[in-house]
Specification:
Blueprint: H1 2-15, E1 36-42, E2 53-58, H2 71-80, E3 82-87, E4 97-107, E5 110-121, E6 126-130, E7 134-136
Parallel strand pairs: 1-7
Antiparallel strand pairs: 1-3, 2-4, 4-5, 5-6
Length: about 140
C-alpha cells in the first residue's frame, strides 16, 4: 500500500514538471556582467607584445568581428599584451551556436600572429570552445 502511494506521488510530481528546451532563451535569467574572451600575447622573454593592429574574422562568412576601441583603450591593451577576441556583444547573434574565427596580429604591417578559435555562446554569455588563449611568439 505504501509503495502505491509513493508511486502516485512520484507520478504527480513528474507530470507537473515542464521539460525546458535548453535552446529557448526567452525565460533565461542572465547575470549582468559583460564577458570578453581575451588573448594574452607575450614574447619569448615573457614580456607583453604590443601589436600595431589586429583583426578578428568570422571564417564562415568573412565578417569582421574586431571590437571597436579608442586610442587610450588600445594603448592599455598594448601595454599588457591582452587583446579582445570575442565578447558578449555577440552573445545574442551566436546564442546556442558555435563559430570558427581567426585572430591576426600585425606589427609594422606584417602579420606576426594568425590563430584559429572556435567560440560560441549560451543564452547569456560567450565562451571559448577551442584554441589557445595564451600565445607566445
Amino acid at each position: 500500500m505504501k509503495t502505491s502511494v509513493y508511486l502516485v506521488l512520484l507520478l504527480l510530481f513528474f507530470t507537473g514538471c515542464e521539460i525546458n528546451d535548453p535552446n529557448d532563451c526567452s525565460n533565461q535569467a542572465c547575470t549582468m556582467d559583460f564577458r570578453t574572451i581575451t588573448l594574452t600575447i607575450k614574447n619569448s622573454e615573457n614580456n607583453p607584445v604590443a601589436l600595431d593592429s589586429f583583426k578578428v574574422t568570422n571564417l564562415e562568412n568573412g565578417v569582421d568581428l574586431t571590437r571597436e576601441f579608442n586610442n587610450t583603450e588600445f594603448e592599455a591593451m598594448k601595454e599588457v599584451g591582452v587583446y579582445p577576441l570575442f565578447g558578449d556583444e555577440y552573445a545574442r547573434d551566436f546564442s546556442n551556436k558555435e563559430v570558427e574565427i581567426n585572430f591576426k596580429g600585425y606589427i609594422d604591417n606584417q602579420e606576426i600572429i594568425g590563430s584559429y578559435y572556435k567560440v560560441g555562446a549560451d543564452c547569456c554569455h560567450v565562451n571559448l570552445i577551442s584554441g589557445e588563449p595564451e600565445i607566445s611568439i
